[in-house]
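Why do we care about 3D structure at all? Because function follows from shape, and shape follows, mostly, from sequence. That is the central idea of this module. The next example makes it concrete: a single protein chain, its amino acid sequence, and then its structure expressed as tokens.
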Amino acid sequence: MELRQLITFKTIAETGSFTKTSEKLGYAQSSITTHILNLEEELGFSLFDRLGKNIILNHNGERILSHADKIIKEIELIKAHQISPEEITGTLKIGAPEAILSYRLPSILKKYKSLYPKIKIDLKHISPNDIFQELSQGHLDIAFIICDEPQIKDIQSIKFCDEELKLISNRSMDISNIETLLETNNIIFTEIGCYYRSAFERILNQYSIMPSETMTLDNIESIKQCVINDLGISVLPLIAIQNEINNKQLYSFTLPSKISSHILYHKNKTMTPAIQAFIKILTS
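And the structure:
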């Protein structure tokens, strides 16, 4: 049984004519006849009484019509993904670096859950070094990364938003003498593989500076507290330090690096209604 046979059957029932059905659906009249004959053969009974030139639904046809109409509507809903938000279920697995996880996603997830209350969210912090492997192995539906432009085989990316990187200190900085600033302060790095660290290392290389004292921390809050307590300077995205800047706990200088946050997913991943709904919110 084919969908087109059911559509042809329903249209004949509505128009009462093979000719009008042919014109409406764009099939040759011989094809319309074949659709109905094949459908009747598969069902094992006739659907219409053919009274001369008149085509009238018989008892069997009336009984089948409501079922055919329901099947057609269900398939149309599936094709269009027009499922009401309250009916969408499943689990959405999201991985993101700390800055996005802590400072961008909470408000977005609040909106998502209010629209799609039956979807379970599996949210976890993930290192930039592990993101692509997690996507490739199917452990994540959606991931986020902060970088220039991700170009990884089989991974699709959508720009999420621009990010602003800041060199931060617990006191006002004399940027006119940045070499001295970098040479005389302890350098606090984020973890290896993190874009903020790469940006910081590029600045140091630009001025041919080999820092004598460094620290490596994998937690933004720890880095902020160390900088606030005069243990060094660091590079972090503005979204992570805005409150401390407003409260004058930290002072910052905008780095020239232009970077963005990106939404990532595997190109062969089945785009479930839950995933599509989340991406729609992110890009709206």
